[in-house]
Amino acid sequence: MSPTNPMAALFGKSPFKPLQQHMRIVVECVAEVPELFAALIDRDQVRLEEQKNKIFLKEGEADTIKSNLRQQLPRSMLLAVDRRDLLDLLAMQDAIAGVAQDIAGLLVERRMDIPEGMAEPLMRFVQRCVATCELAHRIIERLEKLMEVGFRGREVERVEAMVFELGEMESDTDLMGMSLARALFSQEDNIKPVAVMFWYQLIQWVGNIADHAEKVGERLRLLIVR
To answer: In total, how many domains does the chain have?
Structure first.
């Protein structure tokens, strides 16, 4: 009889499939963030609320997969990699969706007026951070192929090159975030201190999307080395 539990069916094929499914939902969640900021720039509160709801919905889906995976990944199952490594990778993926949810919640709960001259660089920053997450997703999608070749050979070299590119992209976002922070602080005499504080926090959170994405790649690289 075929297993009735969808997670069991996934494990029957590969221990990586639920992890990949989770990352796909995470990327769908983060993909809504640029439109969230576009709505903020346009001062469209209705669209802002809609984007917030989409992000919260996707984060909830990712959370459900995470909980199921944690509960149903058998401790006794013979895996190609250590169970703890898979759970660490899962937690890093999930952190990306969590940050997207935090950003959406803040932008809806508190009125955020974009400081003068920051709209365009802010959108570039957001888009670059989302692109970093998308590259991390493509790396995770290589897990099946890596397992097929026994975590060695040209496929490993290809993935390591992708992880290196991911690190370069994350470094770009660091520079972009610092530039935005400098632009923010240059206007602090004309902006309420509490607004400066919230905007600085928001810039950090957006940067954390790329930071967590890089950690996903690095954790996978360590998994390969082991």
So the answer is: 1
Residue 174 covered by a domain = yes
Q: Which domain holds residue 27?
A: 14-225
Pair 136, 205: CB distance under 8 Å: no
**pLDDT given at position 29:** 98
pLDDT at position 94, please? Answer: 96
Burial 35-62 (b: 16+ CB within 10 A, else e): bbbbbbeeeeeeebeebbebbbebbebb
* Residue 140 placed within a domain: yes
Decide if 176 contacts 124 (C-beta within 8 A).
yes
Residue at 181 is within a domain: yes
Residues recorded for the chain: 226
For residues 82 and 85, what is the distance between their CA atoms, to the nearest angstrom? Answer: 5
Long-range own/partner contacts, residues 177-183 (CB < 8 A, 24 or more apart): 177/125, 177/203, 177/204, 177/206, 177/207, 179/121, 180/118, 180/121, 180/122, 180/125, 183/115, 183/117, 183/118, 183/121
Residue 24 lies in a domain: yes
Rounded mean pLDDT, 159-170: 94
Say whether pTM exceeds 0.85. yes
Read off the DSSP letter of residue 115. P
pLDDT in tens, 65-112: 999 888 776 554 445 567 788 889 999 999 999 999 999 999 999 989
Task: Output the domain CATH number for residue 94.
Answer: 1.20.58.220
